[in-house]
Amino acid sequence: MIGQNEDIIEAFSDEYFMKAAFQQAISAFEKKEVPVGAVVVSRNKIIARAHNLTEQLSDVTAHAEMQAITSAANYLGGKYLTNCTLYVTLEPCGMCAGALAWSQIGRVVFGARDAKRGFQTINPTMLHPKTSVTSGIMEVESSALLKQFFQERRSEK
User: Fold this and answer.
1) What residue spans of 14-103 are helical by DSSP H?
2) Mean pLDDT of the chain, nearest integer
3) How confident is the model at residue 10, as a pLDDT?
4) Which residues of 132-145 are buried (b: 16+ CB within 10 A; e: fewer)?
5) How many CB atoms lie within 10 A of CB 80?
6) What angle (nearest 5°) sits at the alpha carbon of residue 13, between those of residues 12 and 17?
7) Cα gap 49→53, rounded to integer Å
8) At residue 136, what are phi and psi to the nearest 5 degrees?
9) What are the residue ranges in the chain where pLDDT is below 50?
10) Residues 74, 76, 77, 79: is their CA dihedral positive or negative?
11) Which of 103, 102, 51, 54 lies closest to 76, judged by CA?
């Protein structure tokens, strides 16, 4: 029964959509990409799903956010994502934050903080002034997946 099970995630909640982004991060992990996943949501519908493809494409700009922005813009038929929310498992870097600013995305929700390369460390005002930010959704799971990835990479060398 709903309400008695704490594991049930309410549809259309931040946790619900972040779980979809986390599934993308797992796909990246399985492909030996840095495990970052993203989804773009418009009107409670996922319109884009993406994960890091930097290794597969040999492209340093192929971050999950960049892939998701392009996919969402193609879906909508325009470059602005003003009424959309990006859910991403890791705080966007400066490059991705710049692209998000240009897209005029309405909201960014991220899981794990990136204390070295995250936009909040580089320049917290980097996003569009009307973009709202929520952090810490599935932070523990997102951080754990990233740590596991880098530990495995170090042990392979």
Assistant:
1) 14-30, 54-57, 64-76, 94-103
2) 93
3) 78
4) eeeeebbbebbeeb
5) 14
6) 75
7) 12
8) 90, 5
9) 1-6
10) negative
11) 103
Q: Which of 6, 10, 30, 65 is catalytic?
A: 65
Q: How many percent of the chain have pLDDT more than 70?
A: 94
- How far apart CA 143 and CA 151 sit, in angstroms, is 12
Q: Is 101 exposed, middle or buried (0-12, 13-18, 19+ CB in 10 A)?
A: middle
Tokens of 142: 């997102």
6 is catalytic: no
pTM of the model: 0.92
- Tokens representing 146? 């990233």
d(C-alpha 147, C-alpha 129), whole Å: 32
The confidence score (pLDDT) of residue 110 equals 98
Query: What is the spatial distance between Cα 30 and Cα 8, in angstroms, rounded to a whole number?
Result: 26
Query: How high is the pLDDT of residue 66?
Result: 98
